[in-house]
Structure prediction request, 227 residues.
Amino acid sequence: MGPVEKRRWYEDACGAAFALEMIGERWAILIMRELMFGPRRFSDLRRDLPGISANILTQRLEGLEANRIVRRRKLPPPASVQVYELTQWGYEAEPLLKILGRWATRHPGHDPSLPLSAASLMMSFETMVDPERAKGLDAKVGFRLGEERFVGHIHDGSLKVVRGEPDGAAVTFTGEPTVIAGAVYGGMPLVDPEASGALQIEGDAALAAKFVTLFVLPEKLPEENRG
Prediction:
């Protein structure tokens, strides 16, 4: 059965309707988000999407693969494990995910204090960096987030993140994604005596203090007048 034969929810020729038929099922977009920084094992996806069952994850991966958004391959020795990765066409959806995230955070119901994965935090940083605040900065920032490792390069008012060991980074943040998100979006202090060990900073302390000020969430929608 070909990918376009699996479902027809809308019977609508609009490209947006067809996109929803391919990636509109629950968890599909979040799986794509987790794969935006490179290949992941099935167990990695289960760990970073703790609310999904193994059965549903299998179904969603099969659907994304059938629609040419995800592919499977085996890593060469010594790893020799199967991984899932986005196809080139799948990676082209990155701007869509970022725009969708920015658009949704304007709603008053968005709660940035909820749990989030390492990939979600990194995509958030790429999306929410303020070009004016980052202007003139040229530096590499590392992240150790549980088992995940990333390096972000701030340059020309933007931030590009890749998966990898933060060797050579000017400053490195170590901690849980929610803790680092709290420092960036929630105004929590970088050094909190009541949360000792929750967030560690190695390297340029001044750059660390600057880094957490580079990100701005979009302005919330005005409250409705229900009077």
